[in-house]
Amino acid sequence: MSKTYSAAERAYREIKERILTGALPGGELVSENEIAGELGTSRTPVREAFLRLETEGWMRLYPKRGALVVPVPSHEADHVAHARYIVETGAVRALSPDDRAALLPRLRASLDRQRVLAAAGELDEFAVVDADFHREYVIAANNPLLTGFYDSLRERQRRMNSAALRRGETRTDRIIEQHTRIANLIEAGNADGFAAALAEHLTAVHGVTLRGQ
Length: 213
Description:
The structure is a single chain. By secondary structure, this protein is mainly alpha-helical. It folds into 2 domains: 3-69, Orthogonal Bundle (Arc Repressor Mutant, subunit A); 76-206, Four Helix Bundle (Hemerythrin (Met), subunit A) (Up-down Bundle). Helices cover 74% and strands 5% of the residues. The protein has 10 helices and 3 strands, in the order H-E-H-H-E-E-H-H-H-H-H-H-H. It is elongated and about 60 Å long. The relative contact order is 0.12. The model has no long low-confidence stretch (mean pLDDT 90).
């Protein structure tokens, strides 16, 4: 791997992480010089990173002006939440008793980690662990197609979680309380109760309206 490519990859990862965590909020216009200075690199790798992020839909480039961080589209939260609801409820309904028994220690460990991060005020890392908590029971269903589709939503999910936490509209203690209820319903094999609790959780965190619920 060349030094130029390595620098471009590092710039890409750092800028994208700032977008996902909200450190670079939607609607902000940034310049190559500004980001290069912050990263301690030249403009070339930053330009390459900007081009890659534009291709992925995270940025929009304006020659001689800079790069606009694309805001979250107005209906994206509804679409992501609805897709998540379908996948997550389907996954939980497919779990066998043995699947649930193997899954619960991972969910409990995630809850413990969430409590530690919440107490430390580590909101960005909390948003990552939050997303991973839900992914655990999708993986447990042992359907690679469901898991692959769910993972395609992960970055949008992270950005939504981080935005909600940064705005102060969602309290970590409330999220942990809802996650605990979700884990308890999975343990009990109560798929209908889980579906209702998940709909309530997604609505509370993201202010969405789940169609058909």
